[in-house]
Design a protein that fits this description.
SBP_3_CS; Solute-binding_3/MltF_N; ABC transporter substrate-binding protein; globular; five-stranded mixed sheet; alpha/beta; signal
Length: 302
């Protein structure tokens, strides 16, 4: 999962442009084109009792500075028409900001630079499908807002076993859990058993990994479950799930260690959960399978 170290993604924009007509001939679908879902915003009002708990600096500025890395559909990516950053994560963070009476100010950064920026105080919170794990909890706190696992995808009609992919080519996004932990561990199990290694194909963007699978350049793709589900939804004639979701862990919003912002964000999120707004947002984006009922701080499983 996104340890988007964290996983993340999404789907076919850059690679489709690069390979042009050849991609069109292969039936390449561009997730950023007109078929991109038109998801309505859910109205949210300020809750004074929660907003009053905001750190004074943020309250006075009237904005929550959010570090984000795109594209990673359906969680965070750019609308191809407006250039605006949209997605499930965005709608949820916008709703949290509304509860707090501020606006979310999204600042793009390389994924691996977001947590250092939080530690340096240049952004208030990260929002890029971060997996909350014990290693990261040593440097930042997490407000957990979603449950995601790892999900593999395969070419339709060409089954692959995620637990026995020795000798196969598997696409992942660089610096994700799948890239750093999952595939290397599975590849080592292969070689320890005297079988060929897994050929890990790492891409800078999840979109390129998904495109490689759609075009048949790899045998499978491993990504966070909402990301893989969305890829399959956009390319139903070409790819399908390979095995079940596994190793489910929480997504969390990282904030500075010991920051008073963590309990405020958790309270705002829990308000959205309790009032049904959270579930509506999740359903709007088709990711309700990972919806939670209680938000916690630092809920890493291990």
């Amino acid at each position: 999962m996104s340890v988007r170290l964290g996983a993340r993604g999404f789907i076919l924009r850059a690679a489709c442009v690069i390979v042009g007509a050849a991609v069109l001939a292969a039936g390449c679908a561009d997730n950023t084109e007109d078929e991109s879902p038109k998801v309505p915003k859910v109205p949210v009002t300020k809750v004074e009792s929660i907003a009053a708990q905001l750190p004074p600096k943020i309250a006075q500025a009237g904005r929550l500075v959010v570090g984000v890395n795109v594209p990673y559909q359906p969680n965070e990516y750019r609308d191809p028409h407006t250039g605006e950053i949209i997605g499930f994560d965005v709608d949820l963070m916008d709703a949290v900001a509304a509860v707090l009476g501020v606006r979310a100010d999204y600042q793009e950064a390389d994924f691996e630079k977001i947590i250092p920026a939080i530690e340096a105080g240049t952004v208030d919170v990260g929002m890029s499908s971060f997996t909350d794990n014990l290693a990261r909890e040593k440097t930042v706190d997490f407000v957990d807002y979603f449950s995601a696992g790892i999900q593999w995808a395969q070419r339709k009609g060409r089954p692959i076993d995620p637990n026995n992919a020795c000798g196969k080519k598997v696409a992942v996004q660089r610096t994700t859990t799948e890239d750093i932990d999952e595939i290397p561990a599975k590849s080592k199990a292969c070689t320890d058993a005297g079988k060929p290694e897994i050929h890990k194909m790492s891409y800078d963007e999840q979109s390129a990994a998904a495109t490689a699978l759609v075009l048949g350049q790899v045998d499978a793709m491993s990504a966070d479950s909402p990301v893989t589900a969305y890829a399959i939804k956009r390319n139903p004639d070409t790819i399908e799930a390979a095995g079940p979701v596994f190793e489910a862990e929480p997504y969390g919003w990282p904030v500075p260690k010991g920051s008073p912002l963590a309990p405020v964000l958790r309270a705002a999120l829990q308000h959205l959960i309790d009032t049904g707004v959270y579930l509506t947002i999740a359903q709007n984006w088709g990711v309700e399978a990972g919806a939670i009922t209680t938000s916690v701080i630092n809920g890493a499983k291990g």
